[in-house]
Amino acid sequence: MKPYFNFPFLLQFSVLFVQLYGGASSYGEALSKSIMFFEGQRSGFLPKDQRLNWRGNSGLGDGSADNVDLTGGYYDAGDNVKFGFPMAFTTTMLAWSVIEFGEMMPPAELRNALVAIRWGTDYLLKTVAEPDRIYVQVGDPVKDHNCWERPEDMDTDRTVYRVDAPNPASDVAGETAAALAAASMAFRSSDPGYSHTILTTAIKVFEFADTYRGAYSDDTDIRNGACPFYCDYDGYQASDELLWGAAWLARASDDVKYMSYIENNAKPLGADENINEFGWDNKHAGLNVLVSKQVLEGNVYALESYKASAESFMCTLLPDSSSWHIEYSPGGLIYRPGGSNLQHSTAITFLMLVYANYLEASSSSVNCGNISVGPGYLRGLAKQQVDYILGENPKGMSYMVGYGNRYPQRIHHRGSSLPSVWNHPKPIQCKEGTIYFNSSDPNPNVLIGAIVGGPQEDDEYGDDRADFRKSEPTTYINAPFVGVLAFFTANPSPNAS
Questions:
Q1: Any catalytic annotation for residue 232?
Q2: Which of 21-25, 87-91, 370-374 has the highest mean pLDDT?
Q3: CB-CB contact of 265 with 287 (8 Å)
Q4: What backbone torsions phi and psi does residue 494 show, to the nearest 5 degrees?
Q5: How many CB atoms lie within 10 A of CB 423?
Q6: Per-residue model confidence as pLDDT tens digits over 408-435
């Protein structure tokens, strides 16, 4: 559906709204809460400064089934499984948020963002601590999903899934390399020793990914645990993660061999395929935007094909462009078929803002045939997505929990929907939580900052715990939104030129 909204009018209205009602402080509040959300997803021993204090320690025996320490990390969504593939992508996006927009964050929120990144990287380091081996998942998802219990109580099998060479895991290993490389840049000034450690590890992990090519779910044992939840559905060689990991290593290490890798493998690994997708499974649009920086700001014209793909993607987003084909809801939300739609909106919005930065730094614009637009246009379109998510939509509802006067009350999240361990010390076993799942009462624990899957093409949202496609939050919905909110906290009224 082509959106009915008038973009220039909406941008002018948003600017007026900010001027009258102080939108800058609202974006700052949303930024703070979007980072706080990750504390509610923590697994392992929780620190004394844990702010979402209805959570407790969990998963303290993770890894024991394989005689390793796999405590820590994040639960991906409303369940109690630790999936390495989306966790690594989440970490990459948090790090990229800090790299591009960290200077725009208030100092306290920059510290909180770095803490959130390190909670991910500390766990990822554990998963690749042994040569030619990567641990990709902890927890049996089928048994876990059959229960509705708090992470502090979980008694389902904490099955450990690993990939040993020569079996392939290019997707998870490539994304892990990207996460560690990006994080090394985020920590470079505040903790150079840690930065060096994770960059060195990223290089080794990428070698594993590139040497043993293929998807981790090609392994039958892995497939039975990862699928259908987080299979790599994009490409038999997980080629996008190889290019993505190499691109991040090129930027983090300045080693020319990685620049040569992404140049020489652009065609063989299909860099120009599926260029309009970006998320935990498909990295192409993000890859093209990331590499475009080298063309726009570094004049590395050998990588021009990546920039061409990035611009083609940007043009698909512009309703006034003859190349436009991304679907919008009637209220103006970017829509992609399938569940958890806001993962697309937050990720694409992030890419628009990053590309706008690169355009501005190089005094460039995007030529979409019938129109040519500058960074201000992309920022205005991004702002419209942000404002929709935060409450300027047909439902008048914020899709960030704890933000605004009206937000989802019955999210699909075990820890949030069950009484906390402090209010109900007695364990709530597997099936005992069903009454809470079926309850129409609001969740007793507010998972502050969580962005739910959100409405779909009709802008409707029923606030139904059972409708997980709309009501379940995920770490990879929030991660790119951290960077987006950092930008608008510092720039609440972007120039529309």
A1: no
A2: 87-91
A3: no
A4: -65, 145
A5: 10
A6: 999 999 999 999 999 999 999 999 999 9
Question: 433: which DSSP letter?
Answer: G
Mean pLDDT for all residues in the chain: 92
- In the block, which residue shows the tokens 């958890």? 340
pLDDT for 14 equals 43
CA distance 484 to 93: 11
Determine which one of 218, 234, 241, 463 is catalytic. 463
**pLDDT reading at 369 higher than 90:** no
Distance from C-alpha of 214 to C-alpha of 120, rounded to nearest angstrom: 24
153, 427 contact by CB (below 8 A): yes
Selecting among 39, 62, 79, 140, the annotated active-site residue is: 79
Q: What's the distance, CA 461 to chain centroid?
A: 22
Active-site entry in 284, 344, 412, 413: 412
Instruction: Give the tens place of pLDDT for each residue, 296-354.
Output: 998 889 999 999 999 999 999 998 888 888 899 999 999 988 889 999 999 999 999 99
395 or 273: whose pLDDT is higher?
395
Q: SS3 of 74, please?
A: strand
DSSP 3-state percent helix, strand, coil across the chain (nearest 5) = 50, 5, 45
Q: Which two tokens stand for residue 163?
A: 């990939």
* 463 is a catalytic site residue: yes
- Annotated catalytic, 413? no
Token representation of residue 475: 């770490």
* 79 is known as an active-site residue: yes
pLDDT one-digit tens code per residue, 122-159: 999 999 999 999 999 999 999 999 999 999 999 999 99
Contact 149, 174 (CB under 8 A): no
Calculate Rg over the CA atoms of the chain.
21
C-alpha span between 91 and 156 (Å, rounded): 26
At 82, list the tokens.
């630790």
Instruction: Count the residues in the chain.
Output: 497
DSSP character string of 337-366: SSS-THHHHHHHHHHHHHHHHHHHHTT--E
Q: Residue 273: what pLDDT? A: 85
Rounded to an integer, the average pLDDT of 268-283 is: 90
Of the candidates 240, 351, 344, 251, the one whose C-alpha atom is nearest the C-alpha of residue 291 is 251
Q: Are 307 and 288 in contact (CB under 8 A)?
A: yes
Q: What is the pLDDT of residue 485?
A: 98
In the numeric block, the tokens 């509802």 are attached to: 397
At residue 234, the pLDDT reads: 56
DSSP string, 286-304: HHHHHHHHHHHTT--GGGH
The answer to whether the beta carbons of residues 137 and 84 sit under 8 Å apart is yes
Using CA atoms in the order 22, 23, 25, 27, what is the torsion angle rounded to 10 degrees? 180
